[in-house]
Amino acid sequence: MRLNLVKSKNNAALPSVKKGIITLIHTDFIQRMPDTDEKGIRCINELQLTEDAEFQYLYLTPFTQKEEITPSGDNESTLFIPKISGTYPGNKIGAAEFLKQNLNEPFVIIYDDCTENTRMIYGDIYHPMYMKADYKSDSTGKLWNFTLEQSHASDVPFLLYSGTVPEYTKAYGFIDLTEDY
Questions:
Q1: Share of the chain above pLDDT 70, in %
Q2: C-alpha dihedral, 96 to 31 to 54 to 126, nearest 10°
Q3: Residue 63: phi, psi to the nearest 5?
Q4: 3 falls in which pLDDT band (50, 70, 90)?
Q5: Closest to 70 measured CA to CA, from 160, 130, 153
Q6: Based on the number of CB atoms within 10 Å of its own CB, is 101 exposed (0-12), middle (13-18) or buried (19 or more)?
Q7: Which end of the chain, N or C, is more open, meaning fewer C-beta atoms within 10 Å of its C-beta?
Q8: In sequence order, which residues have a C-beta less than 8 Å from that of residue 171 and are 6 or more positions away?
Q9: Can you give the pLDDT at residue 127?
Q10: Are strands 175-176 and 3-4 parallel, antiparallel or unpaired?
């Protein structure tokens, strides 16, 4: 069973999510990426998943969420490397378990974009996103800094996706680490 790391309902001090919970889909569960229109960014059909596809959800504190798309390569061969980063407050044990399960695993990320009526897809089957994190505990608090970065540069910075994605729900059958600790 895949683990989730979401905002604890018992911790009212945590802000609600500005851009939605980040959805992670392991590339093993993706049969085919969506096709795009002639400009290559807007998806024109659904992400095709295996019947046993599992989704994972990651909460990052809203004001720390950051999207970056960095150019890579020489002139006339420049490609993109997208990265999403942010912090998860506290919960050292649950976050460590979540990281351990997902370290070195290839993902496609679906990220809410409040300015559009779509979501953004980062990574694909051939250029997946990988998770890294570091932990800091000091006088300002306990924070996990999560980073999801594409493994190889590609000619697509992101895709705009208006297809369906299951929303996080406890009834979905995943372990919510925020309630265990």
A1: 78
A2: 10
A3: -75, -5
A4: low
A5: 153
A6: middle
A7: N
A8: none
A9: 96
A10: parallel
Burial profile 31-63: b = 16 or more Cβ within 10 angstroms, e = fewer: eebbebeeeeeebeeebeeeeeebbbbbbbbee
Contacts of 29 (CB under 8 A, 6+ apart): 49, 50, 52, 53, 54
Q: Which amino acid is at 58?
A: L
Token pair, residue 181, equals: 């600790």
Largest CA distance in the chain: 52
pLDDT tens by residue, 19-54: 558 899 999 999 999 999 999 999 999 999 999 998
Residue 81: strand, helix, or coil: strand
pLDDT at 175: 43
